[in-house]
Design a protein that fits this description.
This protein has 315 residues and is mainly α. The protein has twelve helices and no strands. It has helices at residues 2-13, 19-29, 37-66, 68-89, 105-127, 134-152, 155-173, 183-205, 212-231, 237-256, 260-279, 285-313.
Length: 315
């Protein structure tokens, strides 16, 4: 045991491991208690997703036997129970971050939002009530999710709201059938810019400023995906230039502001766009294989180097 602890101390002194890594490894070596909160939190959210998916599957599988009215009644009852729970236990609204009132609170809220989505999808699949008003219904559903996210301070419901808003945005732009504009690519780009801008404006206004990361992650991925898709098309040199510019900004700002996820976004999306552009006219399998091995190794080395720098700086 002493040998192991001495070795860990030496590795930390030499900069091979960071302070948090040293603490975690020391806890393992000494069999001390350590927190599994993040892992359990992720597992619980996955469980909520699985439960909501199971409810949607059961509704579809048993609709013929139970009837549509019974299915909608059961889903509505489950939704009502979730909302009653969160409204009964919720703390007062505040513009700043509000701690969760209990362990189950956030999961019940997220489950309720998913049940609402499942019930809406089921009703549309069975009765086609929203076919001519799909755009308006997406907007209403997004506004409901935004209201729940801000009232109860939940980032997962906020992500659901932003995703639903993206659906509304895409449907709205699809009405403009212009031959020189790719609707999906353009809607993703404009959506990403608007989401990132809205998040920055709300943070500056002091309205749930801790939500800014959620806005920024979704907005950045939408922008990168739009630029990457354009760069992968013939004649996409302009989109490739835009992708590389966005990647450079994400890389530099990610290092400067210590947000490793944005460094990863910049490197991976730029690598994907450049690789497709380079390999587009390559016919020799060996040449393509050598390029992939060398370039992927270089990308991995860059990411590992940056992650180690983050670890050393955080020691």
């Amino acid at each position: 045991m002493t040998f192991t602890l001495d070795r860990l101390d030496r590795w930390r002194a030499e900069g091979e491991i960071s302070g948090p890594q040293h603490a975690a490894l020391t806890a393992v070596a000494t069999r001390a208690r350590f927190s599994l909160f993040v892992e359990l939190n992720a597992l619980l959210y996955v469980g909520v997703l699985a439960l909501a998916g199971g409810l949607a599957w059961a509704a579809e599988a048993w609709s013929a036997r139970w009837g549509d009215a019974a299915i909608l009644l059961l889903l509505s009852a489950a939704l009502g129970a979730c909302l009653a729970h969160v409204f009964r236990r919720a703390r007062a609204y505040a513009r700043a971050q509000v701690p969760s009132p209990g362990l189950s609170f956030d999961y019940v809220l997220y489950l309720g939002a998913l049940i609402l989505s499942a019930e809406t999808a089921y009703a549309e699949a069975r009765f086609h009530l929203l076919a001519s008003h799909a755009n308006a219904w997406f907007l209403i559903l997004a506004l409901v999710f935004f209201g729940l996210a801000y009232r109860f301070d939940n980032r997962f419901v906020l992500s659901l709201a932003l995703a639903t808003l993206g659906g509304w945005f895409g449907i709205g732009l699809s009405r403009f059938q212009l031959p020189w504009i790719d609707v999906v690519r353009s809607s993703a780009l404009v959506y990403g810019l608007l989401v990132a801008g809205a998040g920055a404006w709300l943070r500056r206004a002091g309205v749930k400023p801790h939500f800014f990361d959620t806005y920024l992650h979704l907005g950045a991925n939408a922008i990168f995906a739009a630029c990457a898709e354009g760069a992968m098309q013939r004649g996409g040199e302009g989109w490739l230039a835009a992708l590389l510019l966005a990647a450079a900004i994400a890389f530099v700002q990610g290092i400067r502001r210590r947000r490793f996820a944005f460094v990863v976004y910049g490197v991976v999306y730029a690598y994907a766009g450049v690789s497709v552009f380079v390999l587009r006219d390559v016919r020799a399998f060996t040449t393509a294989l050598v390029y992939v091995v060398v370039s992927a190794s270089a990308m991995a080395a860059v990411l590992i180097g940056v992650s180690r720098r983050f670890a050393r700086d955080g020691a």
